[in-house]
C-alpha cells in the first residue's frame, strides 16, 4: 500500500491539519446544532410537536458545520476534502451498502442478549424515537438525513479527519481501533439511549476504518454506514 495521504497512510510533511482539527470540527458542529435548536424551545423546553423539525435542522447544521470547518482545514493540507480526507462516493462500491446492512443484522443478533439481560427492549436511540413520531414530509427528510447526511458527515469526521490524524501519530491498527472506539462512545455521550448499541457501533467503526485505510477513500465507508442505518429505517417504516 502506497504510504501517502490519498491512500490513508502517513501524510506528506506539508500537511498542517491534524487531530486538533478533528476535535475542533466536532465541537463546532455540536455548538452549531445547539444554536439552531434554540428557536424551537419554549420556556427552555422542546415541545413534542417541534422535536422532529428541530432534530432535522440540528443534524443538518451539525453536519454542515463539520464539513465546512474541514474544508477550511484542508487549506493547511492538499486543498480539498477528497485529497485530504478521502471524501468520495463511487458507483462501483454500491455492494458495500449491502455489507453495511449485513453488519447491522449481525450486530443486532450480537447485542440481543445485552438487550434481553438489561431489559432494554423499550430503549431506543433519540433518532429512532423521533423517526417513529415523524410523518409525511418529516419522514422523507428523516430518511435522507439517516441514509445520506449522517453517513457522509460522520465518516468524513471519524474515518477522514480523525483516522488520518491518528495515522500520523500511531500505527494503522491502533488508529482504526481508536477512531472506532471514539465513534461509538461519542454516540453514547450525545445520546445515552444508544448505550446498548456500543458493540454494533464499534463493529461498524472497525470495518469502516479498515476499508478507509485499505482504499484511501471514504466511498465504501459511507455506503457501509448508510447500509447499517438502512435496517433501522426499514424496521420503523414497516
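^ Assign residues to that structure.
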Amino acid at each position: 500500500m502506497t504510504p501517502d495521504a490519498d491512500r490513508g497512510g502517513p501524510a506528506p510533511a506539508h500537511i498542517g491539519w491534524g487531530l486538533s482539527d478533528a476535535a475542533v470540527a466536532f465541537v463546532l458542529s455540536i455548538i452549531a446544532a445547539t444554536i439552531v435548536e434554540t428557536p424551537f424551545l419554549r420556556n427552555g423546553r422542546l415541545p413534542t410537536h417541534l422535536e422532529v423539525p428541530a432534530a432535522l435542522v440540528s443534524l443538518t447544521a451539525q453536519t454542515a458545520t463539520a464539513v465546512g470547518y474541514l474544508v477550511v482545514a484542508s487549506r493547511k493540507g492538499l486543498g480539498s476534502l477528497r485529497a485530504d480526507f478521502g471524501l468520495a462516493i463511487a458507483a462501483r462500491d454500491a455492494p458495500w451498502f449491502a455489507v453495511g446492512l449485513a453488519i447491522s443484522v449481525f450486530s443486532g443478533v450480537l447485542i440481543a442478549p445485552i438487550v434481553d439481560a438489561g431489559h432494554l427492549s423499550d430503549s431506543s436511540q433519540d433518532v429512532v424515537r423521533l423517526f417513529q413520531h415523524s410523518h409525511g414530509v418529516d419522514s422523507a427528510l428523516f430518511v435522507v438525513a439517516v441514509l445520506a447526511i449522517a453517513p457522509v458527515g460522520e465518516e468524513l469526521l471519524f474515518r477522514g479527519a480523525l483516522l488520518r490524524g491518528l495515522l500520523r501519530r500511531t500505527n494503522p491498527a491502533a488508529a482504526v481501533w481508536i477512531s472506532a472506539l471514539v465513534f461509538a462512545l461519542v454516540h453514547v455521550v450525545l445520546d445515552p439511549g444508544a448505550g446498548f448499541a456500543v458493540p454494533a457501533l464499534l463493529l461498524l467503526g472497525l470495518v469502516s476504518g479498515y476499508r478507509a485505510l485499505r482504499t484511501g477513500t471514504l466511498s465504501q465507508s459511507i455506503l457501509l454506514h448508510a447500509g447499517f442505518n438502512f435496517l433501522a429505517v426499514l424496521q420503523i417504516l414497516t
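The radius of gyration is 18 Å.
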